[in-house]
């Protein structure tokens, strides 16, 4: 007998804007064309060529044909909305960090904070320009690929009730979608089959030996007019992701932008129903010595005909194994060597875990984000610029 799922009001996305927004033409990789086995090699080579163009042109691209049913993704968004609309008192009981980022000490290794800890991040946690605090809340899930460990985190009853469906989505992305993308990266980088997947593969209930990452449902409430004036209409300041790959549900609100590292201009990301937006993160950039670039992106206030609506995204920040050294010596790619991509002398040899630990603790801190303008105060972690501002020679 099939047990009916609890009903929750669906999250109603805003209608696509009718304003003349200059959306950039992003690459599209259609994984429905992927064919396993020796007979599918030629098809995979074609997909690899499309992936390479998307990664090296902008670092942002659409992923279609991922295989996760739209009905299930719609339900996950409805559940996410219900979770994020829980009473404030309940969300505070399951907070992932302090009320503000600066209170989560950067030198306290035991304090994950709302950037990395499981549970809720409240509005106002991150500092922005000119004394403004953010108007975003999210819930983060850890250890979703590990059945025993994921149930040990402290979540409200509503999350516990739906943890199997939540884990199913993020597990599908990692074990199906990432595995296929890893195979395509093997072809691009001229590596033996399975090389890149070996960095992402999962050993059940052994996170220290596994690729992984964390899931997040993120709700933007919008800012007051006075705060938007102080932030130049920015809802989330430009940053690059500390992860290797990031998967974002495509949304019709015209708010997501990335900064083109060829010309330094901010470009609008459009909308493709049931597609995912994928961007390269820091760790994959470091693995490839800068061949793949971690893309700076931000969220800005939408056009007038989309005002007054909330923006909900479901995001997977996908990581390689924490102990992997994040530089080209790990991959030993003939293609990267031939093209001259190698570890710059100023980069210290570090693992992904070291990078994540330091970068996550710095995000949203007031002393970094107080300067006006597009960019936060630049600073370095292990010889590497913390936010990957490539454009205009940076």
UniProtKB/TrEMBL annotation:
Q: Which residues form the Isopenicillin N synthase-like Fe(2+) 2OG dioxygenase domain?
A: 235-318
Q: Name one Pfam family in it.
A: 2OG-FeII_Oxy
Source organism superkingdom: Eukaryota
Specify the species: Rhodotorula toruloides
What protein name is recorded for this chain?
Clavaminate synthase-like protein
Domain Non-haem dioxygenase N-terminal, residue spans: 28-122
């Amino acid at each position: 007998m099939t047990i009916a799922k609890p009903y929750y009001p669906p999250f109603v996305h805003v209608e696509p804007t009718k304003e003349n927004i200059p959306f950039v033409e992003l690459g599209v990789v259609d994984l429905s064309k992927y064919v396993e086995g020796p007979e599918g090699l030629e098809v995979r080579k074609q997909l690899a060529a499309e992936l390479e163009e998307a990664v090296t042109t902008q670092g942002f691209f659409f992923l279609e044909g991922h295989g996760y049913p739209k009905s299930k993704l719609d339900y996950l968004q409805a559940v996410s909305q219900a979770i994020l609309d829980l009473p404030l008192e309940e969300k505070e009981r399951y907070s992932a960090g302090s009320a503000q980022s600066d209170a989560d000490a950067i030198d306290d290794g035991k304090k994950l904070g709302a950037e990395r800890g499981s549970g809720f991040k409240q509005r106002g946690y991150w500092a922005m320009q000119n004394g403004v605090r953010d108007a975003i809340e999210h819930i983060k899930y850890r250890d979703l690929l590990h059945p025993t460990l994921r149930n040990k985190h402290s979540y409200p009853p509503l999350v516990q009730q739906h943890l199997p469906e939540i884990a199913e989505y993020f597990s599908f992305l990692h074990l199906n979608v990432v595995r296929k993308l890893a195979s395509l990266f093997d072809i691009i980088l001229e590596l033996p089959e399975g090389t890149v997947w070996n960095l992402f593969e999962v050993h059940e209930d052994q996170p220290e030996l596994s690729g992984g990452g964390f899931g997040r449902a993120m709700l933007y409430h919008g800012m007051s007019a006075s705060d938007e004036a102080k932030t130049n209409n920015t809802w989330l300041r430009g940053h690059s992701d500390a992860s290797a790959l990031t998967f974002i549900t495509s949304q019709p609100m015209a708010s997501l932008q990335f900064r083109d590292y060829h010309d330094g201009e901010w470009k609008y990301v459009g909308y493709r129903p049931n597609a995912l937006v994928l961007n390269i993160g820091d760790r994959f950039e470091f693995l490839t010595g800068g061949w793949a670039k971690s893309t700076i992106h931000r969220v800005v206030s939408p056009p007038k005909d989309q005002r007054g609506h909330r923006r909900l995204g479901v995001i997977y920040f996908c990581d390689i194994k924490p102990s992997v050294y994040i530089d080209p010596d790990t991959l030993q790619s003939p293609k990267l060597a031939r093209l001259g991509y190698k570890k710059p002398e100023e980069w210290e040899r570090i693992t992904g875990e070291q990078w994540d630990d330091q970068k996550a603790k710095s995000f949203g801190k007031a002393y970094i984000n107080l300067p006006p303008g597009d960019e936060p105060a630049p600073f370095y972690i292990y010889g590497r610029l913390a936010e990957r501002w490539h454009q205009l020679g940076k």
